[in-house]
Give the backbone structure.
Amino acid sequence: MRIAISTGGGDAPGLNAVIRAIVLSAHTRGWQTYGIRRGFHGLLGEDGVMTLTPEKVRGITHLGGTILGTTNKGNPFRWIVNNPDGTQTEIDRSDDLVAAFHASGFDALITIGGDGSLKIGYDLYTKGIPVVGVPKTIDNDVVGTLSTFGFDTAVSTATEAIDKLHSTTESHERVMVVELMGRDAGWIALHSGIAASADVILIPEIAFDIEKVCEKVRQRERLGRHFTMVVVGEGAKPIGGEVQLIERRAAGTVDRLGGVGSLVAKAITERTGKETRSLVLGHLQRGGSPTTFDRLLGLRFGAAAVRAVADRDFGMMIGFNPPHLTRVPLNEVTGKSKHVPLDSDTVKTARELGIVLGD
């Protein structure tokens, strides 16, 4: 059995743990594993494929990133070609990918990715490639799993950053607005905001009224609390407003969100007169060593994916649904996004702690 591994899309802490578990679990069965470089580029002539042995994955569990490299511009169904005149053309290279997969003698593909990569994996499965998916994103927005690996590390990183900002914000009696990743889901902002004792948390699932935010600032002033911590998910938007974009990207890729933190900070200053600063935590949330939880989850995901290959149970994604890892059909996962339920215990906890959610 020859298993190919792909790590496409944004990186997440715990990726190397998944790779190591796949390689070692396959090795114990006498199978071979291969890593496709930079998403699917390695099978389409723009990079290579590397043989993965136990020696090559030794000591990588604690490392961030991915030893295979990654890209968020490698959709074989919507491949971007740069023309000599500077324009770009979108073509379908999925048949080339399928042919390269079979020509390489691979028997199965384990694709590790978020909603975009899992959708590509499912589409390749419908074209005859035996695929098993592993959910990977710091955003935690993949359906069919309670948690994705990388999420716990991102929340821990964000919480630590907010903790550090507390002291300088209180010392200068300012308002601090921290913009966090998560795209259209507010999991990172909500969890880290509550854990770090934020006063305001704005998430994409709840359109916010900026006046409610400013009233919280004024209320704290009246109580002698002359500083306020505001956490904003990058996909948050005001009532009747739009999500802020840093960059609208080409077809086949995702737009870059961002800028809402700066807008919220400016509005607070204009309405309250308080000095307000904003900070975008950005890719710090993707980097660094995975937490113990993400290391263990990644290792479990990798081993479970190989078990699915052994059972020839393809077209499935491994899901973490405590206390077990389960197999979820990829067609029930793709094209969907897991958002924060507004009636969840976590949202209720935030409200009962006095945290303003903007509504």
Summary: The first strand starts at residue 2 and ends at 7. The domain at 155-286 is CATH 3.40.50.460 (Rossmann fold). The mean pLDDT is 94. Residues 151-172 form the longest helix (22 residues).
